[in-house]
Amino acid sequence: MNSENIQKELNFKAIRSSGAGGQHVNKTSSKIELTFDLENSISLSDAQKELLKTKLSSKLTKENVLILFCEETRSQHRNKDLAIKRFLSLIKTNLIRPKKRRLTKPSKTSIKRKAENKQRTSVKKALRKKPKLD
Hints:
Blueprint: H1 3-8, E1 11-15, E2 31-37, H2 46-55, E3 65-70, H3 76-94, H4 108-128
Antiparallel strand pairs: 1-2, 2-3
InterPro entries: Pep_chain_release_fac_I, Pep_chain_release_fac_I_sf
Domain Prokaryotic-type class I peptide chain release factors: 16-32
GO molecular function: peptidyl-tRNA hydrolase activity; ribosome binding; translation release factor activity
């Protein structure tokens, strides 16, 4: 994955930020909307696209477009940088393939240790009972 090539495929749109802020909020477009078309991406291989589609299925639109918003700061440029950082970290973390789990047998010593532990607890609980008066 080449982050420089992927950044060239990103589309940005500046929108007016919501919330309180007085008269200034009505004039400036500081909120950033980042869109990335996963289906038509050239920088990602087909295997990477399929992996991202499965892992990011809840964040993708029906057309497989990823949309991120950033309105943390009052600066449009800082919001753009934050959105790019979030996007790249999201892609990097979701491109990691999980290791396949190998089935293993418990060792003989662990089986023996477990049996001894069970025996100890059963004796401990047996001693808690009232004695029989026969």
